[in-house]
Amino acid sequence: MNQEKPFHPMSGWMPLFCVVTLFVAGPGTIIWSVQNAGGSLVFLGIAFIPLALVSCFGFMAVAPNDSRVLLLFGEYRGSVKKTGFFWVNPFFSKRKLSLRVRNFETGSTSTPDQKNDLGQVIKKGGRTSSKPSKVNDRDGNPIDISAVVVWKVVDTAEALFKVDDYEHFVEVQSEAALRNLASRHPYDSEDSEVSLRGNTVDVCEQLQSDIQERLDQAGVEVIEARISHLAYSPEIAAAMLQRQQAQAVVAARTKIVEGAVGMVDMALNHLKRDGIVELDEDRKATMVSNLLVVLCSDRHTQPVVNTGTLYN
Fold first, then answer.
1. What is the pLDDT of residues 13-24, one digit of tens each?
2. Are residue 226 and residue 107 in the same domain, yes or no?
């Protein structure tokens, strides 16, 4: 297993001075040797020039939140994360890897750079627009869901050597984790059960944990994962809207009936306590019925005035 090893390179300023000196000393030695030493030191002056050229390949500059992975003839020698100007073995292969925080939205796909036969980039890659993923929730209802994942590389060796393309690996595994999470929970729940819509914070934390578990082997840390789009699929959205409206109406009516019954009970107790009127059971039933109609009706009632006696 390739675990990241820190590499501590030497500063590049002293080697830079030496390389410049070799570039100057090479021609100078050749000229001096020809003029004064009969050409005995010409080969030494000639050797200075290729030595300086080869040494130039050892220079590298590391920007903030950047790194270099060093390879020597295919063998991993270490990673440089320190910012600055350095010089290393000129025969090292220096592979650049960004440590910056990145983010993407599931449902979007990235297109790689197009290169010619010489390896030169002729067309820069890009990313398509995001499209929510269609998946069935735990109850079998089709829903559209997408998430935003914020991540960064923390282990350069694992990111380069354990997976083929760590960026593509992050995208595919995040999409798979999101689909798996959506299939384990219902879209909505009436009880205390965890649902996608009602427990957004808990669901996002679980999503982050699931993605991190899949990306540990790629040297990637998931900083945040949150759902950016959640809705019923168009084919059932109208039916689910009617169901939600019906549930809202039932809940409102239940509250109205509870209040109306309490008001009727309070009215009867008040009449009995103050002795305003004596009502038999039939008249109590009639009064209760009339009050409930008035209090529970969704339209204005039309009063009927009784000009006769209480019983006519």
1. 998 999 888 888
2. yes
